[in-house]
Every structure is written in structure tokens, then in C-alpha cells.
Amino acid sequence: MKVYEKAPAKINLSLDVLYKREDGYHEVEMVMTMVDLADRLEMSELPRDTIIISSQAGYIPLDEKNLAFQAARLIKDRYDVKQGVYIHLDKKIPVAAGLAGGSSDAAAALRGLNRLWKLNISTEELETLGAELGSDVPFCVTGGTAIARGRGEKLERIGNPPQCWVVLAKPPINVSTADVYGRFNANKQERRTSTAQVREAIELGDFQRLCRSMGNMLEDVTVDAYPEVRQLKDCMRRLGADGVMMSGSGPTVFGLVSKESKVSRIYNGLRGFCKDVHVVRMLT
Ligand SMILES: C[C@](O)(CO)[C@H](O)COP(=O)(O)OP(=O)(O)OC[C@H]1O[C@@H](n2ccc(N)nc2=O)[C@H](O)[C@@H]1O
Ligand SMILES: Nc1ncnc2c1ncn2[C@@H]1O[C@H](COP(=O)(O)OP(=O)(O)OP(=O)(O)O)[C@@H](O)[C@H]1O
Fold it and tell me: Ligand 2 centre and the CA of 62: distance in Å?
């Protein structure tokens, strides 16, 4: 038997870092949603008790460092599954981009293996398992739009943002999430939180207000280390995107655009600046 799962990319419409916790993680409050740029996972049963990962992407680990591998091992251990699985990852989401590609693959593996092995694990339990794999994984289990708190695992579902185009552009640099949080200094200055305003704009269905409300407290940290992220933001704004922000710990910058007529101008303008540009829709 075979099962297939899509693993969409996430963007952060807000990302407030509240304080550093005793356990080393940061307490956050953020609005996350998904876009229709997705990896695809094919999972098939193996007679031998083993986990095999393959991918067309030559630049991700295919061993126990792969988050889909870790998801399979976790579910096998926890539910005492003796069958093996072959997982093929068709990667479309840029890697180490701030788009939760690995986390979404892990969440898709949890969902798919639950079906493949007929384990009947509840969504809540899948989210709890996901938290063991990474802070963004619980959100990726069901996706949609949510406010995430704690270190990212406490989820409150909210309505979807107004539909629009999303232009994603990743400069050719790799950013480590641990490194960005490590450089973040919570006491440095008063920072404006944005989650409450983003939530309000979504509830009102007010696109322009949403664009004005967005904020990401990790942006300054990444921009300090990689000035090209600011250049990319400025470029996207100049080209006419309505709202522009970095996603997660970066370096991907996204632009929200309401008018289809503007999209190709923004896409073409950005392609002169970096190769990794995608035009997608919010997943609503
Ligand atoms: C930046 C975001 O992607 C925004 O959605 C997430 O907060 C990070 O999610 P993630 O990549 O799944 O993060 P994890 O794999 O759990 O953690 C990677 C590293 O980031 C730091 N980290 C992560 C999440 C968090 N709330 N506080 C942290 O300080 C920790 O040093 C951790 O070792
Ligand atoms: N299935 C996977 N897909 C992509 N990267 C993976 C995967 N499994 C493990 N990795 C490793 O995880 C690291 C982060 O990749 P990923 O694409 O998940 O980052 P990200 O989008 O910045 O994540 P986040 O937004 O959750 O911080 C990479 O260095 C990569 O080698």
C-alpha cells in the first residue's frame, strides 16, 4: 500500500519574541498560515523493519537527520510498529528558508504514517508528537491559520486571512534558526508586538490593515547579519507589493499583493535580484 501527503510551506504574518525561557527556548506569539507551495511525500510499506528516505533534492540529509525520518522513527517507537517504510520526498520548498519545509515534511509523514499503518492517532496526539520534532511541526500537522504560543506548540485556530497573492523570494544564503534566536537580545529595546493587530485585521477581513500590521522581531537580527535581506525587502516594496516581511528566521522575504496585474512586474523585477522566486496563493 502507498499513501501520499502534501506538505505546504508556512509563512509568519507576525512573530513576537516575548522572552528567553529557562530551557533555552524563546516564548513566542505568532500568526502562521500556509501557502500553496508544497513538498509531496510518497510513503510505501516495506517488508523489512527499516526506514528509507529518498529525494530528488541533492542538498538535504537522507539519513536520521531528515525530519521525515525522525517522524517515522518516533511513530514506530511510540506505537511499536514493526513494519518498515520507504518515503520519497519531492522537495519544492526552498531549504533553510524560514518556510518550515522540514517541519512540514515531518508533519506530513506523521499524518501519512498514521493512515498507512492504520494507527488511529488523534490530531491532538499527532501535534504532541510533532512538538518532539520541532517547534513549527505541531502547526504543520493541521495547517490553516493559527496563533502559536509557547515555543510554537500551543495553537489557537483563527480564520483565514483575506485571499491574495504571495510572492516569496529567497536570497542565496542559508540561515540557522538556532543562530538567529541566539543573537536575539530580548532586553535590547522596546519592540512593537504585532500579533494582536494582525489577528484583528484578519477578523475584519481588512487586507490593507493586515499589510500594515505585520511584524517580525527576528527580522532585525537576520538583517544585521545579512544586509541582502533588507535590500530584497526594499526591492519588493519598490516593485509595488502591498505588505512586505521576512518569514520566520529568514532569509525568505514575502510580499502580499492584492492585484493580479502587479504580480508579474514584481516577479520579473525580483528575478533580476535572486533566482529563488515563487508566486503562490494563501491556502484558505
Ligand atoms: C522561527 C520559527 O520558524 C517561526 O515559526 C520557529 O520559531 C522555529 O521553529 P523550528 O525551526 O521548528 O525550531 P526548532 O527546530 O524547534 O528549534 C531550533 C532552535 O531555535 C531556537 N528556538 C526555536 C523556537 C523557539 N520558540 N525558541 C528558540 O529559541 C532554539 O535554539 C532551537 O534549538
Ligand atoms: N525534510 C527536510 N527538508 C528540508 N530540510 C531538512 C529536512 N530534514 C532535515 N532538514 C535539515 O533542516 C535544516 C532546516 O531546513 P528547513 O527547510 O526545515 O528550514 P526552515 O524553513 O528555516 O525551517 P523553520 O522555518 O521551521 O525554521 C536544513 O539544514 C536541512 O539540512
Answer: 12
Question: What's the rounded Cα separation, in Å, for the pair 59 and 89?
Answer: 12
Whose grid coordinates read 519531492?
90
What's the CATH code of the domain at 72? Answer: 3.30.230.10
Residue 186 predicted with pLDDT over 70: no
- The verdict on whether residue 58 carries a ligand-binding annotation is no
203 and 117 co-located in one domain: no
**pLDDT one-digit tens code per residue, 1-31:** 899 999 999 999 999 999 999 999 999 999 9
ipTM score of complex: 0.97
DSSP H helices in 79-226:
101-116, 123-131, 137-142, 177-183, 195-204, 207-213, 219-225
The answer to whether the annotation marks 54 as part of a ligand binding site is no
For atom 1 of ligand 2, the residue with the nearest CA is: 102
Q: What number of CA atoms fall less than 13 Å from residue 151's CA on the CB side?
A: 18
CB neighbours of residue 244 within 10 Å: 22
List, in order, residues 6 or more apart from 122 with CB less than 8 Å away. none
- The per-residue pLDDT for 218 is 96
Residues 89 and 198 in one domain: no
pTM for this predicted structure: 0.97
- How many domains in the chain? 2
- Domain residues for the domain of 104 are 2-157
| CA distance readout (Å), 244 to 69, 93, 174, 229, 239 | 34, 19, 20, 11, 11
d(CA 59, CA 41): 17
